[in-house]
Design a protein that fits this description.
Blueprint: H1 43-46, H2 48-63, H3 72-95, H4 99-112
Keywords: Coiled coil
InterPro entries: FAM107
Biased composition (Basic and acidic residues): 72-99
């Protein structure tokens, strides 16, 4: 038995391939004393809000009312564009002065002079 693993120094145990996980005992034996592992419950899925949302999404999918599939970045960019347009319109409205305001400013300047 002169295999490649016999030449490796025992100090270099990280080079020796071995099974990291131990095999569970409960697979082979039907020992009633053993406590069988159970899957942990997910608190998010058991919450009432999550269940209601999931039910609503399923009903909307059956009806053909799919939610908007826009990525978050696209939504943010559209909101920024909308806000920018609104801001520009407000600034233009402030810049535009009515004929009355223009006339009043002229008279005020004349009075100050």
């Amino acid at each position: 038995m002169d295999g490649p693993l016999e030449d490796i120094d025992p100090k270099d145990s990280c080079l020796v391939p071995r099974n990291i996980m131990a095999e569970p005992d409960y697979i082979e034996d039907d020992n009633p004393e053993l406590i069988r592992p159970q899957k942990l419950i997910n608190p998010v899925k058991t919450s009432r809000n999550h269940q209601d949302l999931h039910r609503e999404l399923l009903m909307n999918q059956k009806r053909g009312l799919a939610p908007q599939n826009k990525p978050e970045l696209q939504k943010v960019m559209e909101k920024r564009r909308r806000d920018q347009v609104i801001k520009q319109k407000e600034e233009e409205a402030q810049r535009k002065k009515s004929d009355l305001e223009v006339e009043l400013l002229k008279r005020q300047q004349k009075l100050e002079q």
